[in-house]
Amino acid sequence: MLTARPVHYLLFLLSLVAAAGPAYAQPLPEGPIRAFDGRVTVSGEVIATVGSSDDITFFNYTDYEHNALHMMRLGVSGIYQPVGWLAFVGEVRSEDLEHPAPYAAYARVRPWRSHAFDVQLGLIPPTFGAFGRRTYGTSNPVIGYPLAYQYLTSLRSDAIPATADDVLRMRARGWRSSFPIGSQVQGPGVPLVSGFQWDTGVQVSWKSGSVELAGAVTNGTLSNPRVRDDNGGKQMSGRVAVTPAVGLIIGASAARGAWLSRTVAPDSRPAQRSLGADVEYSRDHWIVRSEIVWSRWAFPTALRPSDARALDALASSIEGRYRLTPRIFLAARADHLGFSELRGSVLVLPWDSPVSRIESGVGYYLQRNLVLRATVQQNWRDAGRVTHRTYLSGQLAYWF
Description:
This protein is mainly beta. Helix content is about 5%, strand content about 50%. It is built from 4 helices and 21 strands. The strands form 3 sheets. Strands 2-3-4-5-6-9-10-11-12-13-14-15-16-19-20-21 form a 16-stranded antiparallel barrel. A two-stranded antiparallel sheet has the order 7-8. A two-stranded antiparallel sheet has the order 17-18. The mean pLDDT is about 90.
């Protein structure tokens, strides 16, 4: 269930703002803590978000079953570099003051000092897409997450439908879906790409001039990252990014991996296939980004009476930020998430309810690494308990 601690969050926000009041004379620490001649680096973040309740609409529900617009997030990360070519990286996070959990834990090997070639093994950063590779506290122009990285579809890796009607009955029920094959316990579905979990495996990245390449082999998939493999399959993912001009970055990504647990697909490994494209342009006081993510989930058998053996989804977003002054900025993001049509016994409908979202707001930098935001987010869809909802949110984010 969603955890709601509005009083605690508000008090925390007020205490940080009060601490930042005299901060212009004695600012909060702006950089990471270094020790042992720089071999150990420790950094952290505190992000407190207060927003309207999402208890009956679940537009902002996450795969950790939290409300992204009403959440406290604490994180501590560290790097230990015993020698120049080897580093150990880790990060622990707590959401809504729950038990801390590892978010990142990997070894990074750089065999040659003169080449930007890295090998990373463990709980590794994402290879696919643009949003998941950015730092949330510093790079997210608004408070919410893009639909591709947060909104839960009705599909689950541990329970699958037997017919097309089983799928259509779960439209707009990604927060608590259920299917006849596999787990009989209601549970959250999966997003196109998880923005709250990293996958486990090995990643290789290389950068030369204006070109950057990355590839990875992991245990889970984009929508279902895992520490332990649950189906005997692996995901292959890759990304290429080019910088043809100053301020312009163009990227393309692809991924394919077995997404269903062996408990529901013991004799096959149906795949999740994904493609992505992204572009970013920054100049003067502007930064504009756009991203498209397409994903297809396959099933062991056709979903009768339809002949469909796979379901598709396509998400697109565009966002921007403009600095009015060095401290004040305006920001906005527009999203849409659509789904392929599926023929049931009576109707032909998109297999999940299409969603549109617009979020806009203003931010104020109390200091370089302490920002206060306020946004208005509007959501629309054609099914579910509530088809339209507007949320007001405030956030204070601090990182060092």
